[in-house]
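Issue 218. Parser rejects a valid record. Input:
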Amino acid sequence: MKKKIAVVGAGISGIFSAWYAAKKGNQVEIFETSALPGGVLRENIVNHDLYSSGIQYLNNNESWFASLKKEFKKNDFKIFDVEYGSFTQLGVHKNISNNFPVMVFNTNSKLYTLDKNKKENLRERIDSYPKDLSKNIINWSKRFKINLENLEWNAADNGLNLGRIYIKNREKELLILKKKNKFLDKLYGVPRNIAGFKKLQAALPVGGYNLFFEKFLKVLTEKYHVKLNFRTPVRTIYNRKKFSLFALGKESKFDNIVWTANPTSLIKNFLSSDLESVPLNVRVISFFLKNRVKNNFYAHVFSDKTSVIKFYVYNNKKKNILYAECFDEKESIFKIKRELNNLINKFNLKNLINSEVKIDQIVKRYILTTKKDRNVLDKFYKKIKQTNLIHAGWDNYSRSDKIRILTNQIDSI
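Output the parser choked on:
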């Protein structure tokens, strides 16, 4: 039966949800506060040049993306094997990995503790590692200027790059422990080739995300007759287990509302509870590179010697660009530039920064979940089960996990 569905938010999750619901024959309308679609995937434009807003790959192995690609031409996407690595320099530990983007350590310590079943907060998770490692991890993490005790256990996966660590030369032991113990499986990782997994395949839109969203909107409006409302803030009205939207000066009723935007106001209006919404402050920097980038590459950096957290070299419209994220420590751009060139050399990328800084800004990311947030979200998810609201699983950092949560709910209506 055809239903009238509203989608709030025009990022990738929102636009995909609108397409998925419309493809099933429903009447779909999108509401977006900003003037343009794309959310965090939109590139920054400086002097007509496009700069990535992060390491934003689409997972070519996921079924949701395979279905979406059918709406586009084959040459609309560049498909490639993901190349990544990591540099760890914490205390006496120093390692470079060319095939795994996590902290890498050498230790002979036992890989379990008496407190291994404690999952109250992020600090307890880190304390579950051997002491010679946990001390270094904690000191590095504190540079984000966040309270580790206040964050939930799973916050390690949400943008902090602390989901798993790798103990070098103990792969067999790690694989046995990971298989036997789900807790240790969450703490430790091994490179994909050792674990028996295929290489990750990624996709990027040719011409950039801004052009991709322009094409996607054309598909939505011309093929599926989706109605678009940009520069249109909304609020919810709740009555008798039904949500409706108040927008453009009037109330609009829908059979279902798919909410993919920031949920803070939604949850506050419904539960009279605030999310703590702890921000992660990151310094974002971009430069031009001297030589042509043949293959995109990114590395996570865990070092007490530099403020750099990660860097990404890529090619965009014949421009060779280095994107970097740093701790917000007011380090001079001259020093950061030197440190980035040193990191480029460590990975033998045969390139160097060849310009003054093009972008240098502090970005606030609301991607961390506190213990209080976890309780509020769980309560919210439970209470809306019998309503017409579809949620985006906001506590999931993975784009594919969010889309899976959304499509499962859309399938059930």
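Fixed in the parser; the record now loads. Residues 209-224 form the longest helix (16 residues).
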